[in-house]
Amino acid sequence: MKKVLLLPLLLLGIHQVIAAPKGVTASLKAKWSMTPFLLETSEFIGEDGDEKFWHFVDTVKELTVYKQGESVRSYYNLIIKKAAQFLTNLQVNLLRFALALRSYSPAVHASQQ
Q1: By percentage, how much of the chain surpasses pLDDT 70?
Q2: How does the average pLDDT of the chain come out, rounded?
Q3: SS3 of 24, please?
Q4: Would the pTM of this model clear 0.70, i.e. be above it?
Q5: How many angstroms separate the Cα of 66 from the Cα of each of 2, 43, 81, 96?
Q6: What is the pLDDT of residue 18?
Q7: Between 43 and 35, the higher pLDDT residue
Q8: Closest by Cα among 84, 85, 108 to 96
Q9: What b/e string do you get for 53-65 counting C-beta neighbours within 10 Å, with b at 16 or more?
């Protein structure tokens, strides 16, 4: 009798090990090319209000001069540094995440159309 009860319990335990959840990977490819980090950052800051947006624009209007001789990474760090003047630490982290996801790219592309 004990063997009869033990076998279903073992099978149930094996079934739970085999039925482990699998991860999901998704990929999305946009029809347009990459949009500049500076414009995506402007969109992010613009959500916080027009006043912050225009102050940010005044601060970064000469950044295109720096970009010509710099690497993409140093240009990205410069944009984050300039944006941090107008954002909290939490918002800076959200901005980094948004830039990594390129979540403001559709808004920039729509503005360019």
Answers
A1: 73
A2: 78
A3: coil
A4: no
A5: 78, 21, 14, 20
A6: 53
A7: 43
A8: 84
A9: beebeeebeeeee
User: Residues 6 or more apart from 49 whose CB is under 8 A from it?
Assistant: none
Question: What is the residue type of 29?
Answer: K
- Taken as a whole, the chain contains a residue count of 113
Q: Give one DSSP letter per residue of 55-108, joined into a string.
A: HHHHHHTTHHHHHTTS-HHHHHHHHHHHHTTTS-HHHHHHHHHHHHHTTTHHHH
Q: Please state, as a whole number, how many other Cβ atoms lie within 10 Å of the Cβ of residue 76.
A: 16
Instruction: Give the pair of three-digit tokens for residue 49.
Output: 């209000």
Find where tokens 């909290």 sit: 88
Q: What is the pLDDT of residues 79-113, one digit of tens each?
A: 999 999 999 999 999 999 999 888 888 888 888 77
Q: How far apart are CA 38 and CA 70, in angstroms?
A: 14
